[in-house]
TrEMBL record:
Pfam families attached to this UniProt entry: Cu_amine_oxidN1 (PF07833)
InterPro entries on file: Cu_amine_oxidase-like_N (IPR012854), Mao_N_sf (IPR036582)
Residue span, Copper amine oxidase-like N-terminal domain: 67-168
Protein name in UniProt: Copper amine oxidase-like N-terminal domain-containing protein
Signal peptide start and end residues: none
Length: 512
């Protein structure tokens, strides 16, 4: 899956922040507690076994002693002083305790030579719980600290190129401040390095941390961004096509992503088993992204369940690794395509999938295995080529909520069986050009339904209050495509694509 932790890029549009951020946290990134001190005008690169470093493109010795980054006990150690000082930070050596204190911005990190414990802002941390041999060392009179631990502790992104053995450290941008009660959407540009942000998917873990998957079209990569460390960090996961991604987070806060790799393979990536992550092929040559709807849900055991469309056979399919290996089954055989499937899992581990069936008469359909076998229900008949982009959520009562686009009437529609029977209603018929709607349910607060969608009159948010859909604008009309919404314990979180600036954006607001 990934080897490269990329810039959690600072909200600066259209700039190669990569370099900027990259810098701040470099190898020294480990020191780079500076994730809080956004000195994003500096870029530093180092190479394993090389005594020189690049600071903003200028090559210079790391120090007069010829100190080089090294790999010890399977972990990269880097010389701290030269790197941190290049960022404008400082290091203090206390010989009596053999402690080095690295300070950059508001963060202070204490490490002790030969010890596997550290302290970040007064909080004790294990450097590597799985390998106690990973400790700070002194080489040629220079302090060498474990890169991965320092970087991840301080929210610093690290990019490693295994071919050239080059390390590029980047300062992850600070996330937007938590919006105070009563304040509207807080919007941030999260990635602006090229054409980025398409096919985004968002999830929130039990600790309120945000996880986002999306496509970097410029470089043909799947990226994953999260603020689990307190600052935003971005990983390059894998090479990927210009197709849907889907993300889900398990009970341990680990991410699971479905996407289309190069060559049309349907792929799955997760960091649940290793910190650097692994990827696998679910089904080769599926070309599922051609019809949209790569969607993923997790059961109570953390196993993945995926709905997708196999373009070569025009089949709607379902895949799971519940048995330990991937198995697939066909839900709809051939004929006309089944577009834009969306999957959800209820508390009994039953599967629920919505999709647009292009076979006459065109319809929105729902399929579930609650009875022990797959049963299909037609939710709405909407006319030829009239439906697209279904989004499904399961509430705390195991009832189903679906949003979909009715292009015949240019309207955003909503369907639910919460009353015991399927009922549909119009959410928005006035904004025009409604597209790409995503839906989420606040299970902790009465199963309140929340939607976001793009339209000719702006990127919109809708929720139902006192029996009426309340609609407001989040962002401009050229934004909002490829959106996704997730509900945390106290906030709404939205990721989406800015089609004018070609950026990934993130919006959040408190739940009322």
């Amino acid at each position: 899956m990934v080897l490269r932790l990329l810039i959690g890029e600072a909200p600066m549009r259209r700039m190669h922040l990569l370099n900027v951020l990259v810098a701040i946290l470099l190898v020294a990134g480990l020191l780079v507690p500076s994730a809080a001190t956004a000195l994003s005008s500096t870029t530093i690169k180092l190479w394993i076994g090389n005594a020189s470093m690049s600071v903003n493109g200028v090559q210079k010795p790391i120090d007069a002693q010829g100190t080089k980054p090294v790999i010890v006990a399977g972990r990269t150690l880097v010389p701290i002083r030269a790197v941190i000082e290049a960022f404008g930070g400082s290091t203090v050596w206390e010989s009596s305790t053999r402690k080095v204190t690295v300070t950059l911005g508001k963060n202070s990190l204490d490490l002790w030579i030969g010890k596997s414990q550290a302290s970040l802002n007064g909080i004790a941390l294990a450097i590597d719980a799985a390998n106690s041999a990973v400790v700070p060392v002194i080489t040629n009179g220079r302090t060498m600290l474990p890169l991965r631990f320092v970087a991840e502790s301080l929210g610093i992104g690290v990019q490693y190129d295994a071919t050239t053995r080059m390390i590029t450290l980047m300062l992850a941008p600070q996330g937007p401040p938590a919006p105070p009660p009563g304040v509207s959407w807080i919007i941030s540009t999260m990635d602006s390095t090229g054409d980025v942000g398409k096919h985004t998917s968002i999830a929130v873990d039990a600790n309120g941390k945000v996880h986002i998957s999306y496509i970097d079209l410029t470089n043909g990569k799947l990226k994953y961004m999260t603020n689990v460390t307190g600052s935003w960090v971005t990983w390059i996961v894998d090479s990927a096509g210009d197709y849907d991604t889907g993300i889900a987070v398990d009970a341990n806060g680990k991410c699971h992503i479905v996407y289309d790799g190069t060559g049309g393979d349907l792929k799955y990536a997760t960091n649940a088993t290793t910190a650097s992550g692994v990827s696998s092929i679910v089904e080769g040559g599926a070309w599922s992204g051609l019809m949209g709807g790569d969607s993923i849900a997790l059961d109570s055991y953390g196993k993945a369940h995926i709905s997708y469309f196999r373009a070569s056979d025009l089949d709607l399919k379902y895949a799971t690794n519940g048995s330990g290996t991937w198995s697939t089954s066909i839900l709809k055989i051939g004929g006309m395509p089944a577009y834009s499937a969306s999957i959800g899992m209820d508390s009994d581990n039953n599967i629920h999938i919505s999709y647009y069936d292009d076979a006459l008469p065109d319809s929105i359909k729902y399929v579930t295995n609650m009875s022990g076998s797959w049963v299909v229900t037609t939710i709405a008949t909407i006319g030829m080529a009239a439906g697209w982009k279904t989004s499904l959520a399961v509430d705390s009562n195991n009832k189903i909520h679906i949003s979909y686009y009715d292009s015949t009437n240019d309207a955003l529609k909503y369907a639910s069986n919460a009353s015991g029977i399927w009922q549909t209603e119009t959410v928005d018929k006035s904004s025009g050009g409604v597209w790409d709607a995503s839906l989420a349910v606040d299970k902790a607060n009465g199963n309140q339904v929340h939607m976001v969608y793009s339209s000719n009159s702006g990127f919109k948010y809708a929720t139902k209050s006192a029996g009426t859909w309340q609609i407001s604008t989040i962002d401009e009309s050229w934004t909002g495509r490829y959106n996704s919404i997730a509900i945390g314990s106290s906030s709404i979180h939205v990721s989406y694509y800015d089609g004018y600036n070609l950026n990934l954006k993130y919006a959040t607001k408190p739940l009322l």
